Amino acid sequence: MSTLITGIGELTTNDEARGGTTGRMRDAAVVLEGDAIAWVGAASDAPPADERVDVGGRAVLPGWVDSHTHLVFAGDRTAEFEARMAGEPYAAGGIGTTVAATRAASDAALAGNLERLADELLRGGTTAFETKTGYGLTVADELRSARIAGARADAVTFLGAHLVPDGEDAAAYVDLVAGDMLEAVLPHVDAVDVFCERGAFDEAASRRVLAAGRAAGLALRVHGNQLGPGPGVRLAVELGAASVDHVAFLDHDEVRMLADSWAHGRGTVATVLPACDLSTRMPLAPARRLIDAGATIAIATNANPGTSYTTSMAFCVATAVLQMRLTVEEAVRAATLGGAIALGRDEPVAAASRPAIGGRAGAAPLPDLGRIRVGARADLQVLDAPSITHLAYRPGVPLTSAVWRAGARVV
Ligand code: NIG
To answer: Which pLDDT does position 47 carry in this prediction?
Structure first.
């Protein structure tokens, strides 16, 4: 089954071969065949297909790739949010509230909540997302979180090192995370993450968990420099992490380090989370400085019930433009291709060259995400607008008018 999408007023491809930040084309058409993109070019040259959809001059772009979410949870933290808006600072301790609710929830309730939020993501144009464990914090609860996440998400990250559970000895808990807990979740996850922050895990504990994850064949992620200066960014770059996320508090050297990490091949993506910065009333991450220095950034929602209860990538893109001073092209690229790079999904990767130990990591070759080009997974969104500029020009307006994921029309 093939579908010709034509009448595209503005096509954002993110294909470097087409030039500019976003590989933009006018009066374009795209053909989807099965789950992949089969043809991209001028509408006047388009080949025939089984089905034809004319989008009437609207803008088409890759689906959002949300590379940082925490969607396996139960419960609600409205009261904590209200207190914050009344002046209370955010503290990592709020995680414990969600841990208690998550442990008490049934598998069906957790899967149902994930499904609800995944549908919300899709309706907003997000065609691929990562999600994390981290609200279970026992071997059994982290394992079931990883299983539930793996049934729905495109990428799953193990975040046993989210918080030391109440009443537990910190050193013994790190032993557990780096030992039995990691071993239990391994077949279900692609990456390991650690909340490296005052009040969560210090540098030595973070290093230990990341080293264990790396030895097990997982990609590395770090929650770093979220609530204040700290060792997270330095550690992430030193260990070759795929991403370091939050990055709100960066000095000149850390910005340089992130940029330089790309000098000899793949480096560490700096993932900015604008909705979280706003919702916790923290400074916005210095996305402009990062891009100017040459770093690779991703924009993600950080959807979770504590610090960022939104699934709207469009909101994050608008904030990145209006408040972080990115151009629309930079923000759209960071929210699509940037996320794909953070997840290691921007290029097709042969099964043989992927890490062999993590069960999910040893899976079949993956088509690439974040670009509209031949061979990529057929993930794209149509805006009810003539150009991507409207994402910032009309903030808060739901502009998603159609979405294809893996070749299937889902909105
Ligand atoms: O990315 N920083 C740590 N983890 C989440 C917050 C989780 C929560 O407060 O429940 C974050 O912001």
So the answer is: 97
- The pTM assigned to this predicted structure is 0.97
pLDDT < 70: residue spans in the chain: 349-366
CA of 232 to the centre of ligand 1 (A): 15
Residues 395 and 369: beta-carbon distance below 8 Å: no
**Looking up tokens 């139960």, which residue turns up?**
74
What is the three-class DSSP state of 110? helix
Torsion angle (degrees, nearest 10) of CA 122, 126, 130, 135:
-50
User: In this predicted model, what pLDDT tens digit does every residue of 366-400 receive, in sequence order?
Assistant: 678 999 999 999 999 999 999 999 999 999 999 99
- How many residues make up the chain in this entry? 411
Q: Which atom of ligand 1 is nearest to the CA of 280?
A: 12
Rg (CA), the chain: 20
Q: What is the DSSP letter of 183?
A: H
Residues with CB under 6 A from ligand 1: 70, 94-95, 98, 195, 223, 226, 276, 302, 304, 306-307
Could you write out the DSSP letters of every residue in 12-63? E---GGG-TTT-EEEEEEEEEETTEEEEEEEGGGPPP-SEEEE-TT-EEEEP
Which of 61, 23, 57 is closest to 43 using CA atoms? 57
DSSP symbols for 203-270: HHHHHHHHHHHHHTT-EEEEEESSSSS-SHHHHHHHTT-SEEEE--S--HHHHHHHHHTTTTS---EE
